[in-house]
Amino acid sequence: GLPGPDRAGSRAPGQPPEVIERRNEEHGAGRLYMRRVSPGAPWVFARLGGSPNAVTVGFIVCGVAAGAVVALGGLWPAIAAAVLIQAYLLLDCSDGELARWSGRTSATGVYLDLIGHYLGEAALLAGLGFRAQGHLTVSGPYVTAGLAAALLAMLVKAETDNVIVARAKSGLAGAHDDEALAPRGTGLALARRLASALRVHRAIQAVELSILILIAAIIDTIAGGLAATRVLTVACLIVAAFMVVAHLVAVVASRRLT
Fold first, then answer.
1. Residue 132 has pLDDT above 60, yes or no
2. 50: which of 34, 45, 101, 153 fits an S-S bond (Cβ 3.0–4.6 Å)?
3. Which of 90, 93, 83, 97 is nearest to 7 (CA)?
4. How many other C-beta atoms lie within 10 A of the C-beta of residue 198?
5. Residue 85 in contact with residue 56, Cβ under 8 Å?
6. Do the beta carbons of residue 62 and residue 207 sit within 8 Å?
C-alpha cells in the first residue's frame, strides 16, 4: 500500500479549494464540521492500505445499516442510527480525499459514491416508515409513507444527476458552474433564496434526518407511543413530494441545461 500521508499535509491535496468552496453538491454538515475532522481519516486508511473504493463501500454499509437499525424502534436504535450516519458522513468525506491524495480517482469511485447517497438516504426514510408503523409491521400507512418518501428522495437526486447526463447527451462541454444555478426569473430566484434560507430540503437528507429521528425518539420515549415519529414520517413525505416538483422547476428554469 501507499505510505500514509502526513496528517498536516493530507489536507491540501485531499481538500482542494474547488471541493471546499462548492455549494451545490457538498453537504452542509460536511462543510460545517466533518471536513475539519476527515483529513485524519485518509491518513489512517492509507496506513492500513485501504483503497478509496473500500472506504466508499464502508460508507454505503453504514448508510444502509442505519436504515435497518432505525426500523427496530426504541431510543437506543435511534441513537445507534445517528452514530452510524456520522460514520457515513465521515467515510463519505474521506473516500474522495483519499482518492485525490493517492491519485486513485476513478469513475467507479464516483459511481459508487452516488449509489451510496441513493441507498443511504432511501434506507433511512424507509426505516423511519417501519419505525412509525411500530412492531416491525411490514405493511400499513406509515410503512407506505416511508417507502414513498424514500422513492421521492431518490427521484430528487436523479433530477440532479440527470443534468450531467442531459448535458453529455446534448454535447455540452463540461459541468455547469455555480452561477448556472440561479433561476432566470426574478420570482423563481427569490423563491430559491427563500428555500435555501429555510433549508427544508435538509429534512430528508441523512445527517439531519438521523438527528430528527433521534429527537422524535426521545419525545416518544418520554410521552409514550409513536406520535412524534409518525408526525416526522408524514412531514418527510410532504417535504420529499414538494422537493421533487420544486427541484424539477428549479433545474428547468436555471441555466444548468444551457
1. yes
2. 45
3. 97
4. 9
5. no
6. no
Q: How far apart are the two ends of the chain, measured CA to CA in Å? A: 43
State CA 135 to chain mean position distance: 27
Rounded to two decimals, what is the model's pTM?
0.80
Q: What is the grid cell recorded at 136?
A: 416491525
Which three cell numbers, joined as nine digits, stand for 125?
A: 426514510
> Could you tell me if 77 and 20 are in contact, meaning their C-beta atoms sit under 8 angstroms apart?
no
Q: Strand, helix or coil at 51?
A: coil
**Is there a contact between 26 and 82 (Cβ–Cβ < 8 Å)?**
no
Residues in contact with 131: Cβ distance below 8 Å, sequence separation at least 6, in sequence order:
70, 71, 72, 73, 146, 213, 226, 229, 233
Angle between helix 206-223 and 107-133 (nearest 10): 20
Q: Is the separation of the CB atoms in 233 and 128 below 8 Å?
A: yes
Listed in sequence order, the DSSP H helices in 71-226 are 75-102, 107-133, 141-169, 186-198, 206-223
Place of cell 426505516: 127
Answer for the pair 236, 209: CB distance below 8 angstroms, yes or no. yes
For residue 38, pLDDT over 70 is answered with no
Amino acid at 190: L
Task: Write out the three cell numbers for 135.
Answer: 412492531
pLDDT in tens, 140-186: 999 999 999 999 999 999 988 888 888 888 877 665 555 545 555 55
**Secondary structure (3-state) at 105:** coil
Task: Decide: 63 and 210 in contact? Cβ < 8 Å.
Answer: no
Alpha-carbon torsion (120, 108, 160, 199), positive or negative: positive
